[in-house]
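The following block was generated as part of the benchmark described in Methods. Ligand: pyridoxal-5'-phosphate.
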Amino acid sequence: MMPTTKILLDESHIPTHWYNVIADMPNPPAPYLGPDGKPITPDMMTNIFAPDLVAQEMSTERWIPIPQEVRDIYHLWRPSPLYRAHRLEAALGTPAKIYYKYEGVSPAGSHKPNSAVAQAYYNKIAGIKRLSTETGAGQWGSALSLAGSMFGLEVRVYMVKVSYQQKPFRRSMMETWGAEVLASPTTLTQSGRQALAKDPECPGSLGIAISEAVEEAASRKDTNYTLGSVLNHVLLHQTIIGQETRKQLELVGDYPDVVFAPCGGGSNVGGIMFPFLADKAAGKQIRLVPVEPTSCPTLTRGHYAYDYGDSVGLTPLMLMYTLGHDFVPPSIHAGGLRYHGDSALVSQLCKEGILEAMAVPQLATFKAGILFAKAEGIVPAPESNHAIQAVIDEALLCKTTGEPKTILFTLSGHGHFDMVAYDKYLNGELTDQDYPEADLQAALHNLPKVEGVATRN
Ligand SMILES: Cc1ncc(COP(=O)(O)O)c(C=O)c1O
């Protein structure tokens, strides 16, 4: 008999709490700093964020209850399936067992609605009418547009220009849910005009789009800002992924030796990996590996330093791995991974050796994604292909050593709106782009100076 392929939980298993990894980290996270170099206070964040989200951002409680209104919406796609990749295993001829947690079943097509719904809810109950945000791949913008429509909030999305051009139907999807979508940089904000003055052909970046969205929220009382990754509360919301996965693996009596996830700002990494962290601290042998692009190698080659989360310097300073807030990454097709920084929590855990990041080049990721699609059927998002590339390498290593390891990864989204990228790959039009050492050194000079904190690699 064919062993189980989809390991499913019924809706009664939708998690009731989010898991806050800060409660179990060996060292407390470094505080965010304001322009004066002093730790910021909650009231400095509430001018653009809902108070409940600010409280979550700073919370040290291990478990935070998920409001019923949010869980009600989670019922639309959660619990998401965990797949055993029998066909991929056979195609590779590996003794490894490969599992993937598929987040592409959400209405927007990725893990992003897990946080978007929560963020829209807390803004709604705070009396906010409009939300501004940025989007790279279009996945986060779609997720927030969906969540905004469910809670009756207006949504304006600053979409990185290169993605806006590559993915016109992501824009249509957001508009279908009632959002307004602008190609960033725009001329509507000071931040956008500044980027265009520097380079009229600027392809945009997540950093610039964040500046535009933050600037808008800061200038309007009825509008708050929302972010799809990086911040503690976003990673917190995503921990339902790992909680469900643990239960699903228990059902089949398995436990991962290694977990891979694509990493842009760290939200699906936090989502799948944080719920396994306490086990690792208790001595369990488990490797947790965020995977990023070689052209935007934040965790693997960036500086560990205080830096801004946006290009212009409107956000608080965060201690994280960074390529410099003014870095505009090459226009690779994994738009969601084109970010100069990373979550402070993921960065600190990498710095402390608890997570071990790796980087993979673009062409190899598409080759891996196509091999996966042929074996498993699902066409993955280009971001997810980064994890798949790492999984395939690990599974092939197992083939050489004969080890039957258990490999788990997040298939963070489907690639149905990314077919232009696949098309280009299939037509031989994509290239690999490296991140030059000179740029790394140049970035160092533009990092904000923070007294008493050494910038180190
Ligand atoms: C499908 C998909 N996977 C991964 C990512 C990376 O984001 P994060 O690192 O926050 O999970 C994105 C970002 O847009 C995405 O759309």
